[in-house]
């Protein structure tokens, strides 16, 4: 498979997974987290499919497309761990989180996701759904939509309390 085909498959899986997860949280109260803004494509999609939810965004820096800049009060610029701790201290509860942090080196990305998993758990609502390109720990794995190949994108539910 070419890198272009792989990227297209990943983006389609991400879109399908987010749409599926948005349906799962329809009766669950809480905000949404976009963990890793990047160019802003995912944030743009989230605000389209969940227009009535507050979407918190965390990234090291604001480098997205101008049409995808989140409101100043919803953008937390800096390292993810302290920003997640700040949200937990505020009592913010997430019904849905999309995890897309990464360095582009698989071993580092997997280690970072494992390291951040406890901080993510602190802000997740019980029953909240996580959609992730990296394996997270401490959450219940879910089978995602049938349109997504196994392990292409990962889905979890937070069964604990925050």
Compact overview of the structure:
The chain is an alpha/beta fold and 162 residues long.
Task: Write a structural description.
Strands 3-2-1-4-5-7-6 form a seven-stranded mixed β-sheet, sandwiched between helices. It is an alpha/beta fold and 162 residues long. It is built from four helices and seven strands, in the order αβαββαβαβββ. Helix 1 runs parallel beside helix 2 and helix 3 packs parallel to helix 4. The longest helix has 22 residues.
Topology:
Blueprint: H1 3-24, E1 31-35, H2 41-49, E2 55-59, E3 75-77, H3 80-90, E4 94-99, H4 106-123, E5 124-132, E6 140-142, E7 154-157
Parallel strand pairs: 1-2, 1-4, 2-3, 4-5
Antiparallel strand pairs: 5-7, 6-7
Helix pairs in contact: 1-2, 3-4
Structural category is: alpha/beta
Total DSSP helices: 4
The first-to-last residue Cα distance is 41 Å
Strand content: 15-25%
Would you report the number of β strands? Answer: 7
List segments where confidence is low: pLDDT < 50 over at least 5 consecutive residues.
Answer: none
How would you state the average pLDDT, rounded? 95
Helix proportion: 25-40%
Shape: globular
Strand arrangement in the largest pleated sheet = 3-2-1-4-5-7-6
How many whole angstroms does the radius of gyration measure?
15 Å
Spell the H/E element sequence. Answer: HEHEEHEHEEE
The major β-sheet equals:
7 strands, mixed
